[in-house]
Design brief:
This protein is an alpha+beta fold. It has a single domain, classed as Thiol Ester Dehydrase, Chain A, CATH 3.10.129. The protein has helices spanning 40-49, 55-58, 60-64, 75-91, and strands at 5-9, 12-15, 29-37, 94-105, 114-126, 133-144, 149-160. The longest helix is centred in the middle third of the chain and has 17 residues, at 75-91. The two termini are 18 Å apart. The relative contact order is 0.21. The model has no long low-confidence stretch (mean pLDDT 94).
């Protein structure tokens, strides 16, 4: 089990986020907590900041006339929140994010849904160009409070060995 605290002296401790390269093992699954409930403000602000003005995300009258019956949270907000939930454990010690693959949207997210994340370590290897660094690949999933998986993606990041 990775240490979450670094002892500074007898009664002083410092949080130590992030796993080191040695602590990653293919097949390990991590549940990221706490969860995050999506608010209407989150949804509207994200749409404004990203200039995504699709009426499904910002217009209640329009959204109510669709098959969803209500405003749908932008998938880029869902991705950002789920990815963000993984950072403290997976990539807090990373040097760089190397890329994303296979981002799949599996069910819509609505205002009021609470999201949770989990990640499975798929692989790790030493960098081909610098053996003092390693590449870790993880598959992360977004799961709504009702157990529905809403998002899955794979990403790789570079980390000091």
């Amino acid at each position: 089990m990775p240490p979450l605290l670094k002892q500074m002296d007898d009664q002083r401790f410092r949080e130590s986020p992030g796993l080191s390269y040695e602590e990653f093992n293919a097949g390990d699954i991590y549940e990221h907590r706490p969860g995050r409930t999506i608010t209407e403000t989150d949804s509207i602000w994200h749409s404004l900041l990203c200039m995504n003005q699709h009426p499904l995300h910002v217009n209640r009258d329009y959204a109510e006339s669709t098959e969803f019956g209500k405003i749908v949270v932008s998938s880029s907000l869902t991705l950002g929140i789920i990815a963000g939930m993984t950072v403290n454990l997976l990539s807090a010690k990373a040097i760089a994010n190397l890329g994303w693959e296979e981002i799949k949207l599996q069910s819509p997210v609505f205002v009021g849904d609470t999201l949770y994340a989990e990640s499975e370590i798929l692989a790790k290897r030493l960098s081909k160009s610098d053996p003092s660094r390693g590449v870790v690949t993880a598959k992360s999933r977004g799961i709504k409070d009702d157990g529905t998986q809403c998002l899955v993606f794979t990403r790789s990041f570079l980390i000091k060995v």
